[in-house]
Amino acid sequence: AQRVTQPEKLLSVFKGAPVELKCNYSYSGSPELFWYVQYSRQRLQLLLRHISRESIKGFTADLNKGETSFHLKKPFAQEEDSAMYYCALSVQYRWGGSEKLVFGKGTKLTVNP
Amino acid sequence: DGGITQSPKYLFRKEGQNVTLSCEQNLNHDAMYWYRQDPGQGLRLIYYSQIVNDFQKGDIAEGYSVSREKKESFPLTVTSAQKNPTAFYLCASSPGFRESSGANVLTFGAGSRLTVL
Fold it and tell me: Cβ–Cβ of A45/B108 closer than 8 Å?
């Protein structure tokens, strides 16, 4: 069965420190992974997806199939990064189309001044 | 202004009553989803629909029902059979499996908070 695990419910760092939010997945198919973010009083929104290989707001995430991980990293955290972060896995139909997204339980990141 | 509109924002229900949450999108997306968000539980999928007049159960469909009679609308009914309905409900949509790019990039609504009294 497909599963996304985010081992940390809460993560607290100081401004300027590096931050890493962990995500591990279990999936028998070819994984497609995402990070979604929910800032206070805002809608849940896409942060980045692994196939884009982008850096968004200084965040990057690399898919490691050997370790079945998709950790989110930022070298220097900012106070405005404080938010709830969700890792998500796209579950595919057998013929390759996307069926649905399965989310982890989320990590609440707090960046202290 | 394209997006997803959920209503009502807050809803109170007495035990034993059914209640329907509205979700409308004007993004011309094929796929729509209902998630339930509880503290410490993340987002759990209730129902989803990849196309009009078709929908599938998600991981926690018991006590819920949906319909997809129109492309832009995907209402969720929380029935009296749902044992713990107090929660925050999120509706989302995506272009759908027929899109080669961004098929599964979800756009979310603002949510509806249901409280059972």
Answer: yes
> Rounded to the nearest 10 degrees, how much is the dihedral formed by the CA atoms of A67, A2, B108, A44?
-40
Number of CB pairs, chain A paired with chain B, less than 8 A apart: 54
Category of B96 on φ-ψ map: left (φ > 0), alpha (ψ -120 to 50) or beta: left
Which one-letter amino acid corresponds to residue A37? V
pLDDT at B100 over 70: no
> Taking 70 as the threshold, does the pLDDT of residue A84 lie above it?
yes
- From residue B38, alpha-carbon distances to A82, B3, B44, B69, B84 in Å are 19, 23, 8, 28, 11
Strands B42-51 and B54-57: antiparallel
pLDDT in tens, A35-80: 999 999 999 999 999 888 788 899 999 899 999 999 999 999 999 9
Alpha-carbon distance A84 to A21, whole Å?
Answer: 11
